[in-house]
Protein backbone atom coordinates (compact mmCIF):
# COMPACT_ATOMS: atom_id res chain seq x y z
CA UNK A 1 0.00 0.00 0.00
CA UNK A 2 1.49 3.40 -0.90
CA UNK A 3 2.77 5.18 2.16
CA UNK A 4 2.74 2.12 4.38
CA UNK A 5 5.77 1.43 6.52
CA UNK A 6 8.69 -0.51 5.01
CA UNK A 7 9.45 -4.02 6.10
CA UNK A 8 13.21 -3.74 6.32
CA UNK A 9 15.69 -1.87 8.45
CA UNK A 10 18.68 -2.45 10.70
CA UNK A 11 18.41 -4.60 13.80
CA UNK A 12 19.97 -3.69 17.15
CA UNK A 13 19.61 -3.89 20.94
CA UNK A 14 19.31 -1.06 23.44
CA UNK A 15 19.22 -0.53 27.20
CA UNK A 16 16.06 0.55 29.05
CA UNK A 17 15.55 4.29 29.56
CA UNK A 18 13.18 5.87 32.08
CA UNK A 19 10.33 8.02 30.78
CA UNK A 20 6.98 9.26 31.94
CA UNK A 21 3.99 7.92 33.87
CA UNK A 22 1.52 10.28 35.43
CA UNK A 23 -2.09 11.21 35.79
CA UNK A 24 -3.43 13.98 33.60
CA UNK A 25 -5.57 16.75 35.00
CA UNK A 26 -7.79 17.46 32.02
CA UNK A 27 -11.57 17.65 31.78
CA UNK A 28 -13.92 15.71 29.56
CA UNK A 29 -14.13 12.42 27.88
CA UNK A 30 -14.41 10.79 24.50
CA UNK A 31 -16.96 8.73 22.90
CA UNK A 32 -20.22 7.16 22.24
CA UNK A 33 -22.57 8.46 19.60
CA UNK A 34 -22.77 6.17 16.59
CA UNK A 35 -21.81 7.42 13.14
CA UNK A 36 -21.19 5.74 9.83
CA UNK A 37 -17.56 5.29 8.81
CA UNK A 38 -17.51 6.63 5.24
CA UNK A 39 -16.53 10.28 4.97
CA UNK A 40 -16.01 10.79 8.69
CA UNK A 41 -12.29 10.62 9.11
CA UNK A 42 -10.51 13.76 8.03
CA UNK A 43 -9.89 13.00 4.38
CA UNK A 44 -9.02 9.33 4.56
CA UNK A 45 -10.05 7.15 1.69
CA UNK A 46 -12.83 4.76 2.65
CA UNK A 47 -12.01 1.08 2.49
CA UNK A 48 -13.25 -2.19 3.91
CA UNK A 49 -16.70 -2.96 5.23
CA UNK A 50 -19.24 -0.28 6.08
CA UNK A 51 -19.20 -0.54 9.86
CA UNK A 52 -20.49 1.84 12.51
CA UNK A 53 -18.11 3.28 15.04
CA UNK A 54 -18.40 5.37 18.19
CA UNK A 55 -17.74 9.04 17.57
CA UNK A 56 -14.54 9.89 19.50
CA UNK A 57 -15.53 13.52 19.87
CA UNK A 58 -18.91 12.90 21.49
CA UNK A 59 -18.81 13.67 25.26
CA UNK A 60 -20.12 11.04 27.63
CA UNK A 61 -21.27 11.81 31.15
CA UNK A 62 -21.58 8.29 32.59
CA UNK A 63 -18.07 6.93 32.36
CA UNK A 64 -17.69 3.46 33.83
CA UNK A 65 -14.64 1.33 33.40
CA UNK A 66 -11.86 2.42 35.78
CA UNK A 67 -10.43 -1.12 35.78
CA UNK A 68 -9.87 -4.16 33.57
CA UNK A 69 -11.06 -7.64 34.41
CA UNK A 70 -8.49 -10.24 35.38
CA UNK A 71 -9.35 -12.15 32.21
CA UNK A 72 -8.54 -9.06 30.15
CA UNK A 73 -5.21 -8.51 31.91
CA UNK A 74 -4.29 -12.17 31.45
CA UNK A 75 -5.22 -11.97 27.78
CA UNK A 76 -3.01 -8.92 27.23
CA UNK A 77 -0.06 -10.62 28.93
CA UNK A 78 -0.55 -13.72 26.78
CA UNK A 79 -0.58 -11.58 23.63
CA UNK A 80 2.65 -9.87 24.67
CA UNK A 81 4.21 -13.29 25.20
CA UNK A 82 3.06 -14.39 21.74
CA UNK A 83 4.42 -11.27 20.04
CA UNK A 84 8.02 -12.61 19.77
CA UNK A 85 9.21 -9.15 20.85
CA UNK A 86 12.47 -8.80 22.72
CA UNK A 87 11.14 -5.63 24.32
CA UNK A 88 7.55 -4.50 24.73
CA UNK A 89 5.82 -1.40 26.02
CA UNK A 90 2.07 -1.70 26.56
CA UNK A 91 -0.31 0.65 28.35
CA UNK A 92 -4.07 0.92 28.74
CA UNK A 93 -5.44 4.15 30.23
CA UNK A 94 -8.97 5.19 31.14
CA UNK A 95 -9.59 8.76 29.88
CA UNK A 96 -12.45 9.21 32.33
CA UNK A 97 -10.45 8.67 35.51
CA UNK A 98 -6.97 8.99 33.95
CA UNK A 99 -6.14 5.73 35.71
CA UNK A 100 -3.55 3.42 34.21
CA UNK A 101 -5.48 0.17 33.83
CA UNK A 102 -2.57 -1.91 32.54
CA UNK A 103 1.13 -1.34 32.05
CA UNK A 104 4.07 -3.49 31.07
CA UNK A 105 7.46 -2.10 30.05
CA UNK A 106 5.91 1.34 29.78
CA UNK A 107 9.02 3.29 30.82
CA UNK A 108 11.42 1.81 28.27
CA UNK A 109 12.13 4.02 25.27
CA UNK A 110 11.55 1.91 22.16
CA UNK A 111 11.60 2.45 18.40
CA UNK A 112 8.10 3.70 17.47
CA UNK A 113 8.24 3.24 13.67
CA UNK A 114 5.25 5.15 12.26
CA UNK A 115 3.86 5.75 15.74
CA UNK A 116 6.33 8.64 15.54
CA UNK A 117 3.63 10.35 13.46
CA UNK A 118 1.59 10.63 16.67
CA UNK A 119 4.27 12.96 18.04
CA UNK A 120 4.30 14.88 14.76
CA UNK A 121 0.52 15.29 14.79
CA UNK A 122 0.60 16.37 18.43
CA UNK A 123 3.29 18.95 17.61
CA UNK A 124 1.21 20.22 14.70
CA UNK A 125 -1.90 20.62 16.86
CA UNK A 126 0.07 22.22 19.69
CA UNK A 127 1.90 24.79 17.58
CA UNK A 128 -0.24 25.31 14.47
CA UNK A 129 -3.75 24.34 15.53
CA UNK A 130 -6.14 22.08 13.63
CA UNK A 131 -7.79 24.74 11.45
CA UNK A 132 -4.73 26.38 9.85
CA UNK A 133 -4.63 26.29 6.05
CA UNK A 134 -1.38 26.44 4.10
CA UNK A 135 -1.23 29.17 1.47
CA UNK A 136 0.58 29.08 -1.84
CA UNK A 137 0.86 32.68 -3.01
CA UNK A 138 2.16 34.87 -5.80
CA UNK A 139 3.69 38.23 -4.88
CA UNK A 140 4.84 41.13 -7.03
CA UNK A 141 8.49 41.28 -8.00
CA UNK A 142 10.63 44.38 -8.53
CA UNK A 143 8.95 45.25 -11.82
CA UNK A 144 5.42 44.79 -13.23
CA UNK A 145 6.73 41.86 -15.30
CA UNK A 146 8.17 40.01 -12.32
CA UNK A 147 6.30 37.70 -9.96
CA UNK A 148 7.45 35.39 -7.18
CA UNK A 149 5.69 32.09 -6.47
CA UNK A 150 5.86 31.58 -2.70
CA UNK A 151 5.75 28.03 -1.33
CA UNK A 152 3.76 27.71 1.88
CA UNK A 153 4.06 24.05 2.81
CA UNK A 154 1.14 22.76 0.73
CA UNK A 155 2.34 19.58 -0.93
CA UNK A 156 -1.17 18.43 -1.86
CA UNK A 157 -1.61 20.96 -4.68
CA UNK A 158 -3.57 20.25 -7.86
CA UNK A 159 -1.92 21.07 -11.21
CA UNK A 160 -5.19 22.47 -12.57
CA UNK A 161 -8.27 23.82 -10.82
CA UNK A 162 -8.67 23.21 -7.12
CA UNK A 163 -11.51 21.24 -5.56
CA UNK A 164 -12.91 22.97 -2.45
CA UNK A 165 -14.31 19.66 -1.18
CA UNK A 166 -11.03 17.76 -1.50
CA UNK A 167 -8.09 17.26 0.83
CA UNK A 168 -5.60 16.35 -1.88
CA UNK A 169 -6.00 19.05 -4.51
CA UNK A 170 -8.08 21.62 -2.65
CA UNK A 171 -5.73 24.35 -3.87
CA UNK A 172 -5.17 24.49 -7.62
CA UNK A 173 -2.26 26.11 -9.46
CA UNK A 174 -4.56 27.12 -12.32
CA UNK A 175 -6.69 29.09 -9.86
CA UNK A 176 -3.60 30.83 -8.51
CA UNK A 177 -2.44 31.71 -12.01
CA UNK A 178 -5.86 33.11 -12.89
CA UNK A 179 -6.04 35.47 -9.91
CA UNK A 180 -2.41 36.48 -10.42
CA UNK A 181 -2.98 37.32 -14.08
CA UNK A 182 -6.01 39.41 -13.18
CA UNK A 183 -3.93 41.39 -10.68
CA UNK A 184 -1.07 41.87 -13.17
CA UNK A 185 -3.14 42.70 -16.24
CA UNK A 186 -3.21 46.47 -15.81
CA UNK A 187 0.55 46.81 -15.29
CA UNK A 188 2.26 44.06 -17.29
CA UNK A 189 4.08 44.90 -20.54
CA UNK A 190 3.07 42.13 -22.97
CA UNK A 191 6.00 42.95 -25.24
CA UNK A 192 8.44 41.83 -22.56
CA UNK A 193 8.71 38.41 -20.91
CA UNK A 194 7.15 37.83 -17.52
CA UNK A 195 9.71 36.32 -15.18
CA UNK A 196 8.61 33.94 -12.42
CA UNK A 197 10.90 33.35 -9.44
CA UNK A 198 10.26 30.89 -6.61
CA UNK A 199 10.55 31.46 -2.85
CA UNK A 200 10.95 28.20 -0.90
CA UNK A 201 12.42 29.77 2.24
CA UNK A 202 9.64 28.46 4.50
CA UNK A 203 11.73 25.27 4.69
CA UNK A 204 15.49 25.23 5.15
CA UNK A 205 18.39 22.84 5.53
CA UNK A 206 18.77 19.38 3.98
CA UNK A 207 15.74 17.90 2.25
CA UNK A 208 16.86 14.38 3.20
CA UNK A 209 17.31 13.32 6.81
CA UNK A 210 20.75 11.68 7.14
CA UNK A 211 19.24 9.10 9.50
CA UNK A 212 17.18 7.55 6.71
CA UNK A 213 18.44 4.32 5.19
CA UNK A 214 19.63 4.41 1.57
CA UNK A 215 17.42 1.41 0.81
CA UNK A 216 14.30 3.22 2.01
CA UNK A 217 15.14 6.19 -0.19
CA UNK A 218 15.84 3.99 -3.21
CA UNK A 219 12.54 2.14 -2.72
CA UNK A 220 10.79 5.55 -2.44
CA UNK A 221 9.40 4.84 1.02
CA UNK A 222 10.79 8.30 1.77
CA UNK A 223 12.57 10.96 -0.24
CA UNK A 224 13.56 14.63 -0.45
CA UNK A 225 11.08 16.94 1.27
CA UNK A 226 9.89 20.10 -0.49
CA UNK A 227 7.60 22.95 0.68
CA UNK A 228 5.47 22.80 -2.46
CA UNK A 229 4.39 19.79 -4.52
CA UNK A 230 1.56 18.04 -6.31
CA UNK A 231 -0.13 15.02 -4.70
CA UNK A 232 2.26 14.61 -1.76
CA UNK A 233 5.35 14.74 -3.98
CA UNK A 234 3.91 12.38 -6.60
CA UNK A 235 3.93 12.98 -10.34
CA UNK A 236 0.38 14.01 -11.34
CA UNK A 237 -1.53 11.07 -12.75
CA UNK A 238 1.12 8.57 -11.66
CA UNK A 239 0.30 7.26 -8.21
CA UNK A 240 3.36 5.93 -6.42
CA UNK A 241 5.79 7.66 -8.81
CA UNK A 242 7.56 10.42 -6.93
CA UNK A 243 8.72 13.66 -8.50
CA UNK A 244 12.48 14.25 -8.47
CA UNK A 245 11.96 18.05 -8.41
CA UNK A 246 8.43 18.83 -7.20
CA UNK A 247 9.07 22.57 -6.77
CA UNK A 248 10.17 22.87 -10.40
CA UNK A 249 7.10 20.92 -11.51
CA UNK A 250 4.77 23.28 -9.65
CA UNK A 251 6.62 26.34 -10.95
CA UNK A 252 6.47 25.10 -14.54
CA UNK A 253 2.74 24.42 -14.24
CA UNK A 254 2.21 27.90 -12.80
CA UNK A 255 4.21 29.49 -15.62
CA UNK A 256 2.15 27.69 -18.27
CA UNK A 257 -1.14 28.63 -16.66
CA UNK A 258 -0.01 32.22 -16.05
CA UNK A 259 0.96 32.65 -19.70
CA UNK A 260 -2.42 31.37 -20.82
CA UNK A 261 -4.31 33.56 -18.37
CA UNK A 262 -2.29 36.68 -19.22
CA UNK A 263 -2.95 36.16 -22.91
CA UNK A 264 -6.65 36.05 -22.12
CA UNK A 265 -6.40 39.20 -20.00
CA UNK A 266 -4.32 41.40 -22.35
CA UNK A 267 -5.41 39.98 -25.68
CA UNK A 268 -2.02 38.84 -26.95
CA UNK A 269 0.57 36.17 -26.27
CA UNK A 270 2.80 36.81 -23.27
CA UNK A 271 6.03 34.91 -22.85
CA UNK A 272 6.61 33.57 -19.33
CA UNK A 273 9.99 32.29 -18.20
CA UNK A 274 11.66 31.04 -15.05
CA UNK A 275 13.78 33.38 -12.94
CA UNK A 276 15.16 30.89 -10.39
CA UNK A 277 15.05 31.24 -6.60
CA UNK A 278 14.30 34.50 -4.80
CA UNK A 279 13.61 35.02 -1.10
CA UNK A 280 10.90 37.49 -0.16
CA UNK A 281 9.52 38.79 3.12
CA UNK A 282 6.25 36.95 2.48
CA UNK A 283 5.04 34.73 5.33
CA UNK A 284 2.63 32.17 3.86
CA UNK A 285 1.46 31.17 7.34
CA UNK A 286 -0.08 34.63 7.79
CA UNK A 287 -3.26 35.88 6.10
CA UNK A 288 -3.08 38.33 3.20
CA UNK A 289 -3.88 41.39 5.30
CA UNK A 290 -0.95 40.69 7.64
CA UNK A 291 1.73 40.46 4.96
CA UNK A 292 4.44 43.10 5.27
CA UNK A 293 6.83 44.32 2.61
CA UNK A 294 5.17 42.44 -0.26
CA UNK A 295 2.23 42.92 -2.58
CA UNK A 296 0.22 39.74 -2.83
CA UNK A 297 -1.18 39.10 -6.29
CA UNK A 298 -2.87 35.77 -5.70
CA UNK A 299 -3.43 33.10 -3.07
CA UNK A 300 -4.81 29.57 -2.87
CA UNK A 301 -5.22 27.70 0.39
CA UNK A 302 -4.97 24.03 1.27
CA UNK A 303 -7.31 21.85 3.25
CA UNK A 304 -6.82 22.37 6.98
CA UNK A 305 -3.72 20.84 8.51
CA UNK A 306 -6.02 18.54 10.50
CA UNK A 307 -7.55 17.25 7.27
CA UNK A 308 -4.05 16.74 5.90
CA UNK A 309 -3.11 14.90 9.09
CA UNK A 310 -6.04 12.58 8.37
CA UNK A 311 -4.29 11.60 5.15
CA UNK A 312 -0.95 11.33 6.93
CA UNK A 313 -2.40 8.96 9.52
CA UNK A 314 -4.79 7.06 7.27
CA UNK A 315 -2.26 6.30 4.55
CA UNK A 316 0.85 6.49 6.73
CA UNK A 317 2.17 9.13 4.33
CA UNK A 318 5.82 9.56 5.26
CA UNK A 319 6.54 12.61 3.10
CA UNK A 320 3.45 14.42 4.33
CA UNK A 321 4.50 13.71 7.92
CA UNK A 322 7.85 15.37 7.29
CA UNK A 323 6.14 18.37 5.67
CA UNK A 324 3.66 18.82 8.53
CA UNK A 325 6.49 18.44 11.03
CA UNK A 326 8.29 21.36 9.38
CA UNK A 327 5.09 23.41 9.30
CA UNK A 328 4.76 22.83 13.05
CA UNK A 329 8.37 23.93 13.49
CA UNK A 330 7.74 27.19 11.65
CA UNK A 331 4.59 27.80 13.67
CA UNK A 332 6.62 27.26 16.85
CA UNK A 333 9.12 29.92 15.78
CA UNK A 334 11.83 27.53 14.62
CA UNK A 335 13.34 27.02 11.20
CA UNK A 336 11.42 24.70 8.89
CA UNK A 337 14.29 22.24 9.09
CA UNK A 338 15.14 18.81 10.47
CA UNK A 339 16.36 20.45 13.67
CA UNK A 340 13.22 22.59 13.84
CA UNK A 341 11.04 19.47 13.62
CA UNK A 342 12.94 17.94 16.53
CA UNK A 343 12.74 21.07 18.68
CA UNK A 344 9.05 21.70 18.08
CA UNK A 345 8.00 18.12 18.80
CA UNK A 346 10.07 17.92 21.97
CA UNK A 347 8.61 21.21 23.20
CA UNK A 348 5.08 19.98 22.56
CA UNK A 349 5.74 16.83 24.60
CA UNK A 350 7.42 18.66 27.48
CA UNK A 351 4.62 21.22 27.68
CA UNK A 352 2.21 18.32 28.22
CA UNK A 353 4.16 16.89 31.16
CA UNK A 354 4.02 18.36 34.66
CA UNK A 355 7.15 20.46 35.19
CA UNK A 356 8.40 18.26 38.01
CA UNK A 357 8.31 15.23 35.70
CA UNK A 358 9.96 16.76 32.63
CA UNK A 359 13.22 14.91 33.27
CA UNK A 360 11.38 11.61 32.90
CA UNK A 361 11.22 12.27 29.15
CA UNK A 362 15.00 12.18 28.82
CA UNK A 363 14.75 8.90 26.92
CA UNK A 364 12.66 10.57 24.21
CA UNK A 365 14.62 10.85 20.96
CA UNK A 366 13.03 12.65 18.04
CA UNK A 367 15.10 12.28 14.88
CA UNK A 368 12.47 12.59 12.15
CA UNK A 369 8.75 13.24 11.79
CA UNK A 370 7.70 10.09 9.94
CA UNK A 371 9.26 7.29 11.99
CA UNK A 372 11.36 6.05 9.09
CA UNK A 373 14.53 5.88 11.16
CA UNK A 374 15.45 3.29 13.75
CA UNK A 375 17.03 6.11 15.77
CA UNK A 376 13.71 7.45 17.07
CA UNK A 377 12.83 6.51 20.66
CA UNK A 378 9.67 6.95 22.69
CA UNK A 379 8.19 5.10 25.63
CA UNK A 380 4.67 3.74 25.91
CA UNK A 381 3.92 6.09 28.77
CA UNK A 382 4.93 9.18 26.77
CA UNK A 383 2.75 8.05 23.86
CA UNK A 384 -0.01 7.27 26.34
CA UNK A 385 0.27 10.75 27.79
CA UNK A 386 -0.17 12.37 24.36
CA UNK A 387 -3.10 10.14 23.45
CA UNK A 388 -4.73 10.73 26.84
CA UNK A 389 -4.43 14.48 26.27
CA UNK A 390 -6.30 14.03 22.99
CA UNK A 391 -8.89 11.56 24.32
CA UNK A 392 -9.73 13.74 27.33
CA UNK A 393 -9.59 17.08 25.51
CA UNK A 394 -12.66 19.31 25.48
CA UNK A 395 -10.97 22.38 23.99
CA UNK A 396 -11.09 21.13 20.42
CA UNK A 397 -7.35 21.52 19.94
CA UNK A 398 -6.11 17.97 20.55
CA UNK A 399 -9.27 15.87 20.25
CA UNK A 400 -8.97 15.85 16.43
CA UNK A 401 -5.95 13.57 16.77
CA UNK A 402 -8.19 10.61 17.63
CA UNK A 403 -10.49 11.36 14.69
CA UNK A 404 -7.54 11.28 12.27
CA UNK A 405 -6.61 7.67 13.02
CA UNK A 406 -7.80 4.96 10.63
CA UNK A 407 -10.61 2.73 11.88
CA UNK A 408 -10.14 -0.98 12.50
CA UNK A 409 -11.46 -3.10 9.64
CA UNK A 410 -12.72 -0.03 7.78
CA UNK A 411 -10.25 2.63 6.64
CA UNK A 412 -6.66 3.34 5.71
CA UNK A 413 -3.89 1.09 6.95
CA UNK A 414 -6.35 -0.67 9.28
CA UNK A 415 -8.81 -1.62 6.53
CA UNK A 416 -7.56 -5.22 6.44
CA UNK A 417 -6.55 -5.56 10.09
CA UNK A 418 -8.47 -7.36 12.87
CA UNK A 419 -9.39 -10.07 10.38
CA UNK A 420 -9.02 -13.07 12.71
CA UNK A 421 -11.89 -14.25 14.96
CA UNK A 422 -10.01 -13.36 18.15
CA UNK A 423 -9.40 -9.83 16.80
CA UNK A 424 -12.90 -9.04 15.54
CA UNK A 425 -14.05 -7.19 18.67
CA UNK A 426 -11.82 -4.27 17.63
CA UNK A 427 -13.41 -3.84 14.21
CA UNK A 428 -15.18 -0.49 14.00
CA UNK A 429 -14.32 0.54 17.58
CA UNK A 430 -10.55 0.93 17.38
CA UNK A 431 -8.91 4.03 15.93
CA UNK A 432 -5.14 3.64 15.93
CA UNK A 433 -1.88 4.35 14.16
CA UNK A 434 0.06 1.43 12.77
CA UNK A 435 3.85 1.18 12.80
CA UNK A 436 6.12 -1.31 11.07
CA UNK A 437 9.86 -1.54 10.52
CA UNK A 438 11.97 -4.66 10.12
CA UNK A 439 12.02 -5.56 13.83
CA UNK A 440 9.37 -3.16 15.08
CA UNK A 441 5.57 -3.36 15.29
CA UNK A 442 3.36 -0.71 16.89
CA UNK A 443 -0.35 0.03 17.17
CA UNK A 444 -1.51 2.88 19.39
CA UNK A 445 -4.73 4.85 19.66
CA UNK A 446 -8.16 4.55 21.24
CA UNK A 447 -10.52 1.59 21.61
CA UNK A 448 -14.15 1.70 22.76
CA UNK A 449 -14.87 -1.00 25.33
CA UNK A 450 -17.99 -3.12 25.49
CA UNK A 451 -19.50 -0.90 28.20
CA UNK A 452 -19.15 2.15 25.93
CA UNK A 453 -16.17 3.70 27.69
CA UNK A 454 -13.05 4.67 25.74
CA UNK A 455 -9.59 3.36 26.53
CA UNK A 456 -6.24 4.64 25.31
CA UNK A 457 -4.21 1.64 24.16
CA UNK A 458 -0.49 1.82 23.37
CA UNK A 459 1.41 -1.16 21.95
CA UNK A 460 5.12 -0.98 21.08
CA UNK A 461 6.95 -4.19 20.15
CA UNK A 462 10.69 -4.01 19.51
CA UNK A 463 13.32 -6.58 18.52
CA UNK A 464 10.54 -8.63 16.96
CA UNK A 465 11.44 -12.06 15.57
CA UNK A 466 8.19 -12.67 13.67
CA UNK A 467 6.46 -9.58 12.24
CA UNK A 468 3.21 -11.40 11.50
CA UNK A 469 3.02 -12.75 15.04
CA UNK A 470 3.73 -9.29 16.46
CA UNK A 471 1.06 -7.69 14.29
CA UNK A 472 -1.51 -10.29 15.33
CA UNK A 473 -0.57 -9.79 18.98
CA UNK A 474 -1.01 -6.02 18.69
CA UNK A 475 -4.41 -6.51 17.07
CA UNK A 476 -5.42 -8.99 19.78
CA UNK A 477 -4.53 -6.54 22.55
CA UNK A 478 -6.84 -3.90 21.11
CA UNK A 479 -9.57 -6.52 20.61
CA UNK A 480 -9.18 -7.84 24.16
CA UNK A 481 -9.57 -4.33 25.56
CA UNK A 482 -12.56 -3.72 23.28
CA UNK A 483 -14.26 -6.84 24.65
CA UNK A 484 -13.64 -5.86 28.28
CA UNK A 485 -16.78 -5.05 30.22
CA UNK A 486 -19.07 -7.22 28.13
From TrEMBL:
Belongs to the peptidase S13 family. GO terms for biological process: peptidoglycan metabolic process; proteolysis. GO terms for molecular function: serine-type carboxypeptidase activity. Signal peptide: none annotated. The chain crosses the membrane at residues 17-41. It comes from the Bacteria. Keywords: Carboxypeptidase, Hydrolase, Membrane, Protease, Transmembrane, Transmembrane helix. This is D-alanyl-D-alanine carboxypeptidase. Residues 47-69, 260-294 are annotated as: Disordered. SUPFAM superfamilies: beta-lactamase/transpeptidase-like. It comes from Kocuria palustris PEL. Pfam families: Peptidase_S13 (PF02113). The lineage of its organism: Bacteria, Bacillati, Actinomycetota, Actinomycetes, Micrococcales. Gene3D superfamilies: DD-peptidase/beta-lactamase superfamily.
Amino acid sequence: MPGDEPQDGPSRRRSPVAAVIAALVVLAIAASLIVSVPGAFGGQDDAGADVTVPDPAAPRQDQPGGYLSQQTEDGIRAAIEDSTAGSAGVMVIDPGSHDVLFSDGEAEALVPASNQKILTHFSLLAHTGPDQRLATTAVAGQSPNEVVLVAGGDTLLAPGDGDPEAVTGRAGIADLAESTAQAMAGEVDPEKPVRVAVDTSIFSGPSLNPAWEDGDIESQEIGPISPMAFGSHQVPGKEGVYDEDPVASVAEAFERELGSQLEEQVGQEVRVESAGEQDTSADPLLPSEQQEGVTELGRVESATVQEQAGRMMGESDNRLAEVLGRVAARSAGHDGSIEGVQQAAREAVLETLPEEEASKADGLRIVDASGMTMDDRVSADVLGRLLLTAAADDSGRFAPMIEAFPVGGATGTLAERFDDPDESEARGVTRAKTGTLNVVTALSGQTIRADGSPAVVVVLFDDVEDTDAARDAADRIHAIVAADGS
